[in-house]
Amino acid sequence: MVACYRGFQSVVALLSRCPFLDVNQQDKEGDTALMLAAQAGHVPLVSLLLNYYPGLDLERRDQRGLTALMKAAVRNRSECVAALLMAGADLTAVDPVRGKTALEWALLTDSFDTVQRIRMLLRRPQIEQLSQHYQPEWPALPGLVAQAQAQATPSLLERLQATLSLPFAQFPQEGGVLDHLVTITTSLASPFLTTACHTLCPDQPPALGTRSKSVPELLVQATAQASRESKASPSCLEIPGAQDGEEEAGGGG
């Protein structure tokens, strides 16, 4: 808890390897490590806890009945709020005293950055670009091609090179779920991220309000699946018909 409150990222990362650590332990005020990191605005620590601590309870409440999401919203920690929502925190949960959600607490405490962040995430609640069924499209491309083909000069390549530097009419990821993921992981942003990004769960892209598995859980799942696939596929060293020949030889003897 002290490491999360102080922002000691290396200590939190090291403690994730301890099998006897209770990440949901609460202090005398009911605060957990996640609550302390979220309300302090330590985004890397919040991401570490969410991604590397299996069994982390996002809905654990303190003595006043506030969750980590509510406490981060009250302090206007917009990026921590985004990380919690992406990990599956319940945006509809209310505190038992005043009956307000995290968004209502943000409005009440004038946390306008958090209010805007939540509303932008709600507009694009899923990272459909990371699904294997997503087809990247550029709405302006057909019009540019038709316009270039209608003119003899300049050439199509020259016109495309001249127009590719223009901004999109509506940037598809700004402030959305994918924008948060890319900012947290790579500090880059691009609408064409799907061309170079693959996930361990291609059929279940990250979505707002959906509890995501931690990295250790995903690795165990991927290892088990790879083991099942290797056992199901025949070995390339096996000789077809060798077993039948041995049975025939044994029967003849």
Automatic annotation (TrEMBL):
Gene3D superfamilies documented for this protein: Ankyrin repeat-containing domain
ANK repeat feature ranges: 29-61, 64-96
Keywords in alphabetical order: ANK repeat, Repeat
Location of region: Disordered: 223-253
Keyword Cell wall biogenesis/degradation applies: no
Highest taxon above the source species: Eukaryota
Name of the featured protein: Photoreceptor ankyrin repeat protein
Record organism: Neomonachus schauinslandi (Hawaiian monk seal)
